[in-house]
Amino acid sequence: MEIQGKKITVVGLGRSGIGAANLLSELGADVTVTDRKPEEELTDFREKLKPSIRLSLGSHPEDLFISADMIVISPGVPLSVLPLSKVKGKGIPIIGELELAYQIASNQALRFDSEGSVASFLAVTGTNGKSTTTTLLNAMLRKGGFRTILGGNIGNALTEEIYKRLGDSGTRRLGEVTVSPTRRVAGSDIGIDYIVVEVSSFQLESIQDFRPKGAVILNITPDHLDRYHSLEEYSEAKARIFENQRGEDFLLLNADDPETVKVAKEQIKGKREKPGIFYFSRKKEVEGIYFKDGRIYCNFPGMSLVTHHSLLIHADEIKIKGVHNLENAMAASAMALLAGSSLESIKDSLREFPGLEHRLEFVREKDGVRYVNDSKGTNVGAVVKSLESFNEPIILIAGGRDKAGDFSPLRNLVKERVKAIVLIGEAREKIKKSLGDLTETAMAKDMEEAVLISRSIAVKGDVVLLSPACASFDMFMDFEDRGRQFKKIVMELA
């Protein structure tokens, strides 16, 4: 990929756009960032850009697209944006921020260790559990002695992480041209063995050559149907994670998730060169990692690190709790083993990893009632896993901005486990219509009222669970803001 001196338009001034623009500018490109939002809404983002980068805010001028040598789009920008559709026929490359990071990191001239090797990508996707699995995998690799970069959809743009690492190394080189005016170098030792990346369906829409050494699809349940026309279209976007994989690569799949197995089988069928395929399962013995009788077992025939059906760890030793976290732990362990981590480093990480904020996060116990923050539960599939994680009666706080979801898959669990539902946000009437006949249902005007209503219903031994099944943007900046407001209100209960 030639970058130096190229005229590049970056679409979208968010985390990914900032990372892409700064990295491209550092490598000698002439960069312009465009965003439809007005300047006053983007002040905080503008301040993070290098001074050499130009801005075009408030609209997407067509000439910025037609005159560009390359266009880089942020994940939140649909490929159907009008100026993009006009330049597709002109041969101008259009790639996403993930693809940009991959192509730069994979360039043989930009070496990631002193031996001249290129760092391998390990990629995690799925509807739910991506961030926990990605972070835990990274922890396992680091404890095993590998040098890593962690980024992607998890919140740290990969391009930003590479940009920072290049700056720290003091060498900024691509191809035969050194960006630093003071010296030429034969390569860059920035000390990386693996780039561990969480990838979303939005990011996978715009890949071309992206080829992870290892990939995992955790699960596929209906989500983002306000962007995709069907579950099939959404599933096909997820399956692109292994589109370019070859025989020396590996793919890990959730054997218990029908949609994951189905789409992988369909997409692999047409590949001439297939990756090695392994599985993880809570329900049956598989080639990979599985759960049985309270224990997790490894079954990787031919691997020297583990024996056939060997015990990895007792499930009650794993620090993070919940049904979905058991799956996340198995997925991360399998990926780490296949990447070369030792059994001891994996076991230690499972015993130590505390989990992530807003994912079944225990907030406090008050008057015998436990309050749990699962604000990251932004779709129905996530809420299913959360409800399955408790045996106690649940007061469920749900609602927000609907993503064209169907809430009926929650009916059986609500009937069995939910003592009451407290609803907030734009989707509250829709959720009430779908679930309100099953249990006591209350409407709240905001989060504070929702917590107070929940407290008035709860008795000793109950769980108040925030797991919204919706996006947060109707009332909050993001799911993190929603979760932190919930925690603040809970901690201030008299």
Can you describe what's shown?
With 494 residues, the protein is α/β, with parallel strands linked by helices. Helices cover 33% and strands 21% of the residues. It has 17 helices and 22 strands. The protein has helices spanning 15-26, 43-46, 62-66, 82-87, 97-106, 130-143, 158-169, 201-204, 231-239, 258-269, 323-338, 343-352, 380-388, 411-417, 428-435, 447-457, 479-491, and strands at residues 7-11, 30-35, 54-57, 70-73, 94-96, 120-125, 148-152, 173-174, 177-178, 194-198, 214-217, 250-254, 276-281, 288-292, 295-299, 310-314, 361-366, 369-373, 394-398, 418-423, 440-443, 463-466. Helix 6 packs across helix 11 (323-338). The termini are far apart.
Quick overview of this protein structure:
With 494 residues, this protein is an alpha/beta fold. The chain is 33% helix and 21% strand.
Topology, pairings included?
Blueprint: E1 7-11, H1 15-26, E2 30-35, H2 43-46, E3 54-57, H3 62-66, E4 70-73, H4 82-87, E5 94-96, H5 97-106, E6 120-125, H6 130-143, E7 148-152, H7 158-169, E8 173-174, E9 177-178, E10 194-198, H8 201-204, E11 214-217, H9 231-239, E12 250-254, H10 258-269, E13 276-281, E14 288-292, E15 295-299, E16 310-314, H11 323-338, H12 343-352, E17 361-366, E18 369-373, H13 380-388, E19 394-398, H14 411-417, E20 418-423, H15 428-435, E21 440-443, H16 447-457, E22 463-466, H17 479-491
Parallel strand pairs: 1-2, 1-4, 2-3, 4-5, 6-10, 6-11, 7-10, 11-12, 12-13, 13-14, 18-22, 19-20, 19-22, 20-21
Antiparallel strand pairs: 8-9, 14-15, 15-16, 17-18
